[in-house]
Amino acid sequence: MLSVQNVAKRLPDGRPLLKDISFEAKKGEFIGILGESGVGKTVLLRCINGLTAPDSGDVVINGGDTVIKVNGKRGQELRVIQQRIGMIFQGSILVKRLSVLENVLTGRLGRISTLRSLLYGFTEDEMTVALEQLERVGIKNLAHRRAETLSGGEMQRVAIARALFQEPYLLLADEPVANLDPKNTEVVMDYLKPLAKEVAIVGVFHAPELVSKYCTRAIGIRDGVVCYDGSPFISPSKLEDIYGTERAVCITSVA
Amino acid sequence: MKRRSLFNTGLGVVLFVVFVWSLVDLGIGPRLFWRGLPHFFRLVSEMFPPSWEVLTEPDILWSVVETLSMAFLGTFFGAAAAFVLALWAASNLTPSRLVRETVKALMAAERSMPTLVVVLVLIVVIGLGPFTGMVTVAIGSIGMLGRLFAEAMENVDPRPLDSLKSTGASKLQIIRYAVLPQVVPSLIANTLYRFDINLRTVLFLGVVGGGGIGFHLHLAMSLFRYADALAITAVILSVIWMAEQLSNHLRSVVIGRETLR
Questions:
Q1: CA distances from B101 to A139, B105, B146, B172, B183 (A)
Q2: pTM (2 decimals)?
Q3: Whole-angstrom distance between the N-terminal and C-terminal Cα of chain B?
Q4: Which residues of chain A are at the B interface, by a Cβ-Cβ cutoff of 8 Å?
Q5: Among the CATH numbers 3.40.50.620, 1.10.3720.10, 3.40.1030.10, 3.40.50.1240, which is that of B51-258?
Q6: B85-120 residue pLDDT tens
């Protein structure tokens, strides 16, 4: 479904951030990407989605019978691909003054003509489908509330509903539970996990515990390369490879 | 220290010279006030009792409606043009620095253009009448509103814009669904404020031939019908007062809803 091939990206000042990243993700997989902060996890996700162009390497998405290369595309061509890649961001990124339902509906803007979206917005059918997605994450009853009145956990569930409404080939999640309390973290992750049956999920996480609890596979990044790729249950010595000695000791002692 | 006090003394001397010179040049003195005072009392005595019967003239009532429509339409078209220009002036929506600076410079030039100059030019180009008044008000609104709108757009939370971009939404769609919802309260509040200003401008424009109730006030004064003038003035004051109450109320509704998060 997703194939990342030798992706490299430099920082604006010329220092290499990602040097050579390659991995594949298939339907049924929930991949958790781990690494120290500043290692380029978010940049990697943005490269996969096309929000950032990699300096070299390829990102290829295989949605059933269509094979699409994400990198190297611009304008309308890129937007058509992005339309089928759901992305859940860190913290709340909803349009606060729109209703929950409207926020979900914006997930399909890329698919409808600009003229229609400016003149009258969305059809009854689209609203029905959007409401179904809200039902899947258990907040259909909040559909007509303003997004700003929701709690952090509810907002992330709206973000998941919006990503699902895109009918994605691939789901990306950038620290989707970073700002949530333990209870809401659990709720959001429990809604996210079963979606892997329909679509490959690639998530960035700050805590190895989350990855071992919910993901089917873990990828560790250090110094711009993949330093770990395998079971989400990572041994202490492998954690040391990912985070360096001090941080790994800290994490294992907490766990 | 020494140089600074020397500078201050010099500045004081210059200010004093300008003050005295202005007084002498304009021939201003206490005598002017004493001479004007009897005229003032005569004017006031002729104004009373105000002749309320002019208010039953359809012409006058119609001109009140005309004044309000001129201010309303002028504000509306001015705000619409300002919105479009603001999109080109906001740094987060228009990447090209050249375009931004050009639009900003145009709006700044537009702001510094006196309304009187605009209306006199338009009277020559379009002729006398309410249309001229409306266009003048619209042009006068663009510079100020454009700048305020652009500032509001630059201050929006950028994260929803980024997230809509990630779903493949086009620029116009991002503006409609992520920028507009965030700036609407500020757009409405500033436009209402400008409407208050424009209503006063329209009254003044009547004097130079822009039509509306201002024209009737000017007419009554020139024909020495001071009692009529006072009645018309009373109407003008109450229209302004009511419009201001209404726009204050609407503004507090819009902004109040905003702070209720």
A1: 46, 6, 13, 21, 22
A2: 0.80
A3: 54
A4: 49, 51, 78-83, 85-87, 89, 91-98, 102, 106-111, 114, 117-118, 148-149, 159, 162, 166
A5: 1.10.3720.10
A6: 999 998 888 888 899 899 999 998 888 888 888 888
